[in-house]
Every structure is written in structure tokens, then in C-alpha cells.
Write a structure and sequence with these properties.
11 helices, 228 residues, 4% strand
Length: 228
């Protein structure tokens, strides 16, 4: 089905062009800052640029890949409408995408699960790239390429500096490094325990004063201590 989707050129990259993707772009814009919205678009474009060079990713569901990339950070919603009190932002984003897909009658449970998994695992690239579905891999690679750049070893043979800069020229970074870090720190202040195990935990440990949630190690050692 994906191979027959209508397409368009965006930043010189061929991407699907469907009503659901248009709705996802609008949803992303409504639930993110301009900086994070641009990051999600670049992650989409770079994901397609990279995945279309890899034979084992050609069979992916291109619309599902698009939805996952475009909604992967909506759990950082500046209106707080999509932010839970007890879940990490990766899961908040995945749950929001699942709710968004309620309008998509042609998305069965399998396609919805692909989108959910791709978003929930997007910050765990060391997991997403191994034995996961092509949609999950392609989503993680696009996001990683945007944040780490073409010189990162895992992308150096798949993405040139010229290709990367072409995308950035069309969809500017707008200070993503600073804003993303601030968003991570805010989550650590707002719901510290939910950040344990999330990529946000690293910012909390380094930059947030008083960030001392009960860690996985402490919980395991507590259980071992009680149970013997």
C-alpha cells in the first residue's frame, strides 16, 4: 500500500503526501514549539533520506513511518495537554499518536502498534535498531541523524553534510540544542520519577538541582533486600 501513496518533494526529499500526514503536521504544530515542530519535520525528512538508501527498509509502511516521525515529541506539549503525571515523555508521545490515529479507519491494531513502538523507542536507539520493524528503525535513524548530525559514525556513510544542510536550510534548527535540553530539565522538575529510564534522566542528573528520584538500581536492590 505504501508504494502507491501520493508523494511530494519537501526539501528535495520525496515523502508521502496523504490527508493523514497533513493532519499529523497540523497536530504536531499545535502541540509543540516552532523549534520542536521543525525538529520533528527534519527527523521525518532525514529518516526518509536515509531509509530509502537501505534495502532492508524499502518495505516499510511509509505513512506509518511519517506519522511516527512527525509526532514523536508531542509528549513535550508546551500547553501540557498531552503531558501525563506519571509517564515518560516517550510514552506520552506514543499515547498521543495512538489517540490521533483514532481518526484513521484503515489503521488496524498492527499499524497502530508500529507507530506506538516507533515513538516509544525513538530515544532508545540502541534497542530500536536491533530486530525491530523497519518503521521503528527508520524513525529512530531520522531522529538520531537530526540530533547527532552526519558526522556521527552510524550515519557517516548514509548522510552527507551537504544533504543534511539542505534539509536544515528548508527547516531551520532554531536553537534545538538549548530548547530540547530545557524541555528535558523541565520534565525532570515536573515529574522526576517518571523520567527514570527516559533519556530525560540524563539531563536531570547533570543539570537539575535536587533531582534525586528513586532509581532502577535502588528499586532492584530494595526488592532483592526484601526478598532475599
Amino acid at each position: 500500500m505504501s508504494s502507491t501513496l501520493p508523494t511530494r518533494l519537501y526539501g528535495g526529499i520525496t515523502v508521502p503526501n496523504t490527508p493523514l500526514i497533513t493532519s499529523a503536521l497540523a497536530f504536531s504544530q499545535a502541540h509543540s514549539t516552532p523549534t520542536l515542530h521543525n525538529h520533528m519535520i527534519r527527523s521525518w525528512l532525514l529518516g526518509f533520506l536515509i531509509a530509502d538508501k537501505l534495502p532492508h527498509l524499502q518495505s516499510r509502511d511509509r505513512e506509518a513511518h511519517s506519522i511516527a516521525a512527525l509526532l514523536h515529541d508531542v509528549g513535550l506539549d508546551p500547553t501540557h495537554g498531552l503531558i501525563s503525571e506519571d509517564k515518560c515523555f516517550e510514552v506520552d508521545s506514543a499515547d498521543a499518536a495512538l489517540a490521533f490515529l483514532a481518526q484513521a479507519e484503515d489503521y488496524d491494531q498492527h499499524r497502530k502498534q508500529l507507530v506506538w513502538d516507533a515513538i516509544a523507542l525513538h530515544a532508545s536507539i540502541h534497542i530500536a535498531l536491533h530486530k525491530k520493524e523497519p518503521e521503528v528503525v527508520a524513525t529512530a535513524m531520522g531522529i538520531g541523524a537530526d540530533l547527532m548530525g552526519p558526522e556521527e559514525p552510524m550515519f557517516s556513510e548514509l548522510l552527507t553534510r551537504e544533504e543534511y544542510e539542505t534539509v536544515v536550510k528548508v527547516v531551520p534548527r532554531l536553537g534545538i540544542k538549548t530548547e530540547f535540553g530545557e524541555a528535558m530539565c523541565e520534565l525532570c522538575r515536573r515529574k522526576p520519577q517518571a523520567c527514570v529510564g527516559s533519556v530525560a534522566e540524563r539531563w536531570g542528573e547533570r543539570y537539575v538541582e535536587g533531582f534525586k528520584p528513586r532509581t532502577v538500581l535502588e528499586r532492584l536492590e530494595g526488592g532483592i533486600g526484601r526478598l532475599g
